[in-house]
Amino acid sequence: MTESAKQLLLEIKNSGHTPIYVRISRLNPVISKDGLEFNYGGKKIELDGGIVRNLGFISSTEQLMKRFDSLKGLESNGITLINSPDSMFIARDKFNSLMKLKMAKIPVPDTTVVEDPFEVMRLVNEWKDVVIKPVIGSLGLGSVRVSDPDVAFRVAKAILSVNQPVYVQKYINKPERDIRVFVVGTTVLGSIYRVNRSSWKTNVAQGSLTQVLLPNEELQEISLKVVKALKLDYAGIDIVEDEDGSYKVIEVNAAPLWKGFYEATHINPAKYIVEHLIRKIKK
Ligand SMILES: Nc1ncnc2c1ncn2[C@@H]1O[C@H](COP(=O)(O)OP(=O)(O)O)[C@@H](O)[C@H]1O
Ligand SMILES: [Mg+2]
Description:
This protein is an alpha+beta fold. The protein has helices spanning about 5-15, 60-75, 85-90, 95-105, 115-125, 150-160, 215-230, 260-265, 270-280; strands at about 25-30, 35-40, 45, 50, 80, 110-115, 130-135, 145, 165-170, 175-185, 185-195, 210-215, 235-240, 245-255.
């Protein structure tokens, strides 16, 4: 269990409720004569609400459907889930998220998803410097920065050979840092710089140092627009500073970790997330 998940359980307990850690692979929706019920590890389980942290390791479309169906089932039984399964589903998919952001007029880098290695090669010729990332991924793992069309071709071939589409994004020539903004409900909790002098990936998991940043009005406005566009209850938003000084949203995390954020700001998102959930349940 991550430190962030532990803090959530603790906050639920501190607020006078009973926390249960649910592993989604063991949560089974049952259609019975009384309607829809849920079994967990063979026993009936009843919940008031839930904080969905991840869908577990997914290795097939069917497995994804079963887990998603379980969450949708909980929701249709009136159980409040944050983030909602629908918005988690969108946020998991980096391309879908960015499409939605673009439609909401939020600045994002030029981005595409393709299934043809020659097209990837052509894009590198056109965009010069690109990042090829897993469409579903986190912690900076598996992302590569490419400016050589032949390298791009080989990378694309390798990804396509395991039946995955290739997610290609224009590299934004940012300073040695990016910005992580944390939003819960309609409140910007705070933001940090993630500084990395040895890697272009500024994830805390890639060894970045954190630094408190008082979010200016523009950052706040962009971040609140992001959660609204993706209908999220809370999120960690990754933003880079472009050469012309403008901001670009590169990714939205619907189940962010907050170790780095917490250490830098001493703000504990768990407290706010649990408060938000309880408020939503009572409505
Ligand atoms: N288009 C880009 N231009 C510049 N830097 C990028 C770009 N995309 C990603 N990065 C860097 O890589 C890190 C990880 O990318 P991100 O899209 O957030 O994926 P992950 O889910 O792995 O965190 C970012 O925090 C940022 O520092
Ligand atoms: Mg990220």
